[in-house]
Amino acid sequence: MNRSYILRPTIWLVVLLLLTMLLEGFFQKQIRRDTAAIKNSVDYIMEHLEGIQINHDTTAHRRFTANRMTHYPQEDNALLEQVKFSSTEPDKPLLRITADQSELFAGSDDIFLSGNVLIIRGEDTDEDKIRMVTEFLHIIPDEDLVKTDHAVTVFRMNSLAKSVGMTLNNRTGEIQLQSRVSANDQRNER
C-alpha cells in the first residue's frame, strides 16, 4: 500500500515532465522557423545598379556596380552580388575591387566583400601594378583602407607573396602582410 502512494505521483510527475519537454520542443521549433522566416524576408531587390560618389574638394571619384542588390529590413542590411568598386584620386593609382558578394550594414560605411575577391592597384598598362586575391575583404572607405584576416596572395611584376591577413592603405600605398608570410621574387636582376 505504501508503494502505490509513492508510485502514482511519481508516474504522474514523469508523464507531466515528458509532456512539458515535448511541448517545449514543438514550440521552440516553431519559434526558430518563424525567426528564420522573418530574417530571410526580403524588402526589395534591385538589379543592374550603379552608383558614384564624388568628393569635389579632393576630386576623388568612387564608383560601384552590382548585378543585384537584395535588402533585408529586419537587420537593415543589403547583400550585393557580382560587385565592382573603383576609386580614382589625383596622384594615386587607380584602385579596383571585384567580388562575388558584398554586404552593407545600416549606420556604417564599411563594406564586407566575400568570394573571389580581386584587388588591383594601378592601371592595366602599369608594369608594377599590384594584384591581390583573397576570399574576404573589409573596405573602410573613410580611412582609405582595405583589410582581410583571411589568406591573401599578392602579385607584383614577377613577385609573389602569400600571407594570412593584410592591410592596404590606399593613401600611402603601404601593404602590411600580417602572419605566415612567404614570398618569391622572380624578377631579373638589373
Automatic annotation (TrEMBL):
GO molecular function, one term: glycolipid transfer activity
TM segment ranges: 6-27
Keywords, in A-Z order: Cell inner membrane, Cell membrane, Membrane, Transmembrane, Transmembrane helix
One Pfam match: LptC
One term under GO cellular component: outer membrane-bounded periplasmic space
Top-rank taxon: Bacteria
InterPro entries: LipoPS_assembly_LptC-rel, LPS_export_LptC, LptC
This protein's name: Transmembrane protein
Organism expressing this protein natively: Nitrosomonas mobilis
